[in-house]
Structures are given as C-alpha cells and as structure tokens.
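Quick one: structure tokens for this chain, please?
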Amino acid sequence: MEGRPPRHTHQSAPKPGAGKIIRGLFLVALIGAGALVAGLLSADPRFVQVLDVRIGPGAVQTPATGGAQPPAQGRRQAPPPGFEEAAAPLGTPEQAPYPSNSYRFLAVNGDGTPVGYSPCRPLHYVVNQHLAPAGAENLIPEAIDTISLATGIRFIDDGGTSEQPTGQRAPYQPDTYGDRWAPLLIAWTTPDVAPQLQGKVIGTGGSTHYSYGDGIKTFVTGSLELDAPQITDELRQADGKLYATAVILHELGHVMGLEHVDDPTQLMYPEIGTPDGLAAGDLNGLHELAKAHCRKDP
C-alpha cells in the first residue's frame, strides 16, 4: 500500500496515483518432491504463501534458495494436529448492514469456498512495537476488534516480540513460539528492515495457507508490516488516526483473505481517500470468510 501524495477527499472515480495504491501481485511456485512453498514477488508483497504438505519423505523448495532441501532430521515441518481446535466456531460474525457483492478472495478451494482461517481455533498475534509511533497505542487492538466482529475469529494477543519481518517467514517456529503455528506477526518497521516498504508503500500484509496434497486449504499464520515513519507523519494530520486505522484494516483484510475490488466505495479498493472504514462489500466478504473449514489436522 502506497502513501498518499497530496491529501485529498475520496472521489467516486479517483485519479490513478491518488490515495494509497497497492500494486498487483505475481505468484511464483516452486514444486519439490515432497512439500511446496510458494511466495509472492511484487512491488507490494501482499502475499499468499502456500505450504502444501504431502505425506511421506520429501523436500522443501523455496523461492529464496531455489533448491531442494531435506527436512532436518527429526524435525517436524508442521505442528501436531488440532492445537486449540474446538468442535465448533468460537464466535459468530456480525451480519453486514446490507447485501453487497463488492468483494473478492485471494484464494479459493477446489469446491469454490474461500480460503480463510479456521473459525474453530483462535488466531494468536504478536506485535513488534519497537518503532510504534506516539499516539498509535490503540490502533492495532481497535482494528483487530473490528475484524474479529466481522469474521467471528477470536484473536489472542500474545504480547510483544523482537521478531523482524522477512520475505520468507517460516510459518512454524517451535524454538521461538512452541509446538504450534507461529502467531500472526504485526511489525512497526522501516524500509531498511522491510525493503518491500521502499518508496511510498506504507503497509503490506498476507497469510500462509496449509493443505495436505490437493485437500482443503486453511490459513495458519501471516504477517503485516507497517511503515512507522510514514504513519508517524500521518498521525500529525487532522484525520491521521482514522487514516492510519484504514491502512491497518485494509492490510488485515488481506491477511484474512480479501483481494482488491474495483468498487471505490469499499476499503479493499486499491486507493483510500476519505477513511470511512469497512464498507458493506468488505463486511460481506469477511462474513463469507467466516465460513472457512474447521480442521483437526494442523
């Protein structure tokens, strides 16, 4: 997501280059003998990373290395099955104010259902807030509460972390986070640490989905990066808090599984003018993501 040039009001047909623009994405998949890991390479690394596990011995191949690597001896590639998975969804999403089809999904399953997080387990998150701007203390919790109401997903704040964002974040980090999927990483950072934030890009976000072979895919973790210096500048403006909140909500929309839309009245439109928050299409899309499959496997 790019920072806005001059400040402006939202228009029904914004001019190219106005507002905050998220560039397109390109999926690169490298398939090994066993598992598959795929990432996105683009100017805005909003991503869907795929972890496709096939039963039996194999290798992991990633865009970072370009070569097959055998799994470490005795090391799992995923956590034990069913961690914190309940028999039914943990929450009930709020109904959108009225129907709207102005939403799209980043990924869908073979049966046409959208890929989302399991509603039957909580989504843990950690925040690297070392560079958090003054006045930003409540921005992330408030945005997460908004997304939780819209999806029924129960978020759990695991506190602070020193983990830094990377282009190839491992979704399973038992040495750091225990025998579970790594929590969603939200990081206040800079372009020096996260090169994808170079230029006017102010935030990026995405998730990793998991499946056995051609089975149902489910998001298991993700990351969201916020350009601390740019948002610091935004918070000095009269509507800066609203604008920063809109940025975080937009990126959380990608984390949950929403794609851009062509409707300029929605927050998932590639440009943000007046920061009005989630609109009816955004809310209907998030409500549909709440119907993602529960799963007892990892």
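The first strand starts at residue 27 and ends at 31.
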